[in-house]
Amino acid sequence: RAYQTQQTTETDTPLAWTGWQVVSSAVNPANRTVRAVLDNRGYVQVFTNGTDAGVYQATASARVAGAPLGGWTRLGTEGFAYLIETVLDGAGQIQVFAIGADNTMYHARETAPGSGAYGSWAQIGTAGDTATFFKAGRNQDGRLEVFRITPDGLVYHAAETSPGGGWVPWEQVGGPTDTANELAVGTDSRS
User: Would the pTM of this model clear 0.85, i.e. be above it?
Assistant: First the structure.
C-alpha cells in the first residue's frame, strides 16, 4: 500500500500534519519508486511503479491539503525497472523518466499542460545506452537534462535541444576512469 501525509495548512504554528492515509491498495509500490510533482495548475500528480513493472499515475482531486487522489492510470503497456523520475518542463508539461526492462532510458510527456494524459514512451539514445541509476532536472532555459550511470559506473548526460524538443546524443561526463554509484541534480542560482 502507498500512504500519504501532508501539512494541514501553511498558517498553522507550529506546522501540523494530518494522519497517514492510504493512497491506494490497488497499486502496491512496495520496494518501488513513488514520485509526486505539482502540475502547471497546482494539482499534485503522483507516479509509481506497480507490481507488474508498469508506471502508474494518479491526480489529486483538488488543490487543497488532504485532497484524495483519483484512480490510478497505467502509462502505456511497457515494463520498467524500479526507478522513475518526474520533472515539470519549460512548456508546463510533466515528463516521466524510467529505466526500461532493457536497462535503457525512456520518457513520456504529458500531451498538454495539466492534462494528466501522457503520450507514448520514447527511448532516449539507443539500445546500447544502458543505465543502473539516473536523475533528471530542468535547466534555467527550460530544457530538461538527464544524467545516467552505466553498469560500469561511468556518468553520461543528455539534454533536450529546446524545451520540449528532441534529445542530443549521450555524452560522457568526466574521464574514462571517473565512476559513480549515485548522483544528485540541483539548482544553481548563478546566472
Answer: no
